[in-house]
Amino acid sequence: MRTFGGYVWADSPLHRAPAAAKLVGLVVGAALVLAVRGPITLAAALVAVAVLGVVSRVGWRRLLAPLWGMRWFLLVIVALNALLFSVSEPLFSLGPLRLTLPGIERGLLIAARTCLIVVLGAMLTATTTPQQVVHGVRELLKPLARLGVPTETAALAVGVTVQFVPTLLRESRQLMRAQELRCGGFAARGIMRRAVSYVRLLVPVFVCAVRRADELSRAMEARGYRVDRRRGATGERGCS
Length: 240
What we know:
This protein is mainly alpha-helical. It has helices at 13-16, 19-34, 39-56, 60-69, 71-84, 101-127, 130-145, 151-183, 191-222, and strands at 2-4, 7-9, 92-94, 97-99, 225-228, 233-236. It folds into two domains: 2-128, no CATH class; 137-234, no CATH class. 71% of the residues lie in helices and 8% in strands. It has a two-stranded antiparallel sheet. Helix 3 (39-56) runs parallel beside helix 6 (101-127). The two termini are 43 Å apart.
């Protein structure tokens, strides 16, 4: 099994399914996950996602990898709900903070929903190439073209965004390694120090994103790329 960016080369029913169907399935699946209210429906959602993960043949290490990067975010979600959602007698109180059992349950439920949606998104990117995503978006937006909506421009924007994400993640990791070598910011202990180190990354990552976008726009202009509405696809003109 080989990987290319976020895509995993494999032969599975999900890989062979149309991109438009998978995009619709992601939206419907996310809506159903958000409708989960109790342990029974949560267990059913977990089983459904697990079955899809097995069918995809992508590997759980690849599907669960994004959750490790979100561990602090998920912990904050659980903590805020546990300490601020007070509808019953608190188990522990300290000033305005009131630790309650319903708050803990609510935080765990929200975190579980978030994890399921992230896994579904990882499943989509692992079984669909960026070109297939663009084609799927184009197919879904076709009815809006009759209303004058620039569907080709939207599809191109989605494709460029999807292809930019791995590049920005790679540059972010390089910046993190550089900062660790210089001052050990990310290796330092303490949540506040880590948070400050991540905030320092925002400006260079933003600058990298703007530079990449400018380079891409110049390259597209130099090659004469344009959206040809008559053909309904991205056209290319020869450069003299």
